[in-house]
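CORE FACILITY INTAKE
Project code: CF-77B
Contact: R.S. (postdoc)
Sample description: multi-component assembly, two entities in total
Requested service: structural model of the whole complex
Turnaround: standard
Below are the sequence entries exactly as provided by the requester. Do not edit them.
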Amino acid sequence: MPLDTRATDAKAGRRELPVSASRSRILVVEDDANIAELLTRELRGLGCTVDGVRLGGDALLASRSTDYALMIVDLGLPDMDGVELVREIRRRAIEVPILMLTARRRVEDRVVGLASGADDYLGKPFAVPEMRARVLALLRRPARLRGEQLAVANLAIDSEALEAMVEGVGLALPRKQYLLLELLVRRKHHTTPKRMIEEALYGFDDAVSANSIEAQVSKLRRALRLAGAAITIETRRGIGYRLSSREAGAH
Amino acid sequence: MARRPAPTPEELRLLDPDRMFVERLAADRAALATSVAAGDALRTRAIVHGLAGAAGTFGYTAIGDIALELDAAAAAGENLSQKAIFSLLEALERSLKSA
């Protein structure tokens, strides 16, 4: 495998940022400061926003409060094994794509990593162009896969067409209300913090007043009620919002 | 796995523009010498594991290859031989002189 670092050069790899990477938010879970720095630099070069933590516990907290497009998880973390971390993320029904990173070379380690719920595996040492290619491949994947799963009670969402339907009938929603609904459905097993909703609905330059989110939620509740959706948006005081299904035993 | 060719100075510079990894190699070399002299197997293994994961990625293939072999041996429950550790120290020394 040749060491081709030329792809780190602007001339070779950064003339056009891939649409799939641009503005994607990625969590890097890596305790080796040099590797974390290298990953951060390269991912930012792809146009991604990068958060970094070195502990599995911090990664769990971050993955609950932020909707990441991808997580890169090192297998050997100071406080827990990366496999354990990935299992816990999947147990909490967080569907973020995960790229596992490790110096362990045995086939059994790769199999265990993938079986725990990781989507891909990159062995250390890695070549930067390969890391970038795998990241881009994973960022291309989830929109298609997750789009098939977006349904709660009698509500379905086609994330490709940006359309919500109640019992197969299209629900005409303005853009912000659609984005809010899609976010809540994607996180149907979790309370969605207000900060996350703000990030999803508003750009950095948008003015967001204190009750902007409440106003959007109120309008969306009304639209859902009028359409006969069998879901409600519950307020978790001081935290955020969570979808609740009126179907027995389901959220 | 096929051995990678030695990187050019330009490739090393692209991977480590602030020379932070070179500084880390120097710190690891000193810490490894200390841990070996003190018989601190746990600390030695931690340094070796770190180098196994990072050195090859930053283009220091000779260091990375030795560290990977040592790390695999340690993971298999073997004691790390003094000879192998000294070869890692020598590889670190050589790389630091040319860096």
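Facility notes:
- Chain B touches chain A through 28 residues (CB under 8 Å).
- The first helix of chain B runs from residue 9 to 15.
Invoice: internal transfer
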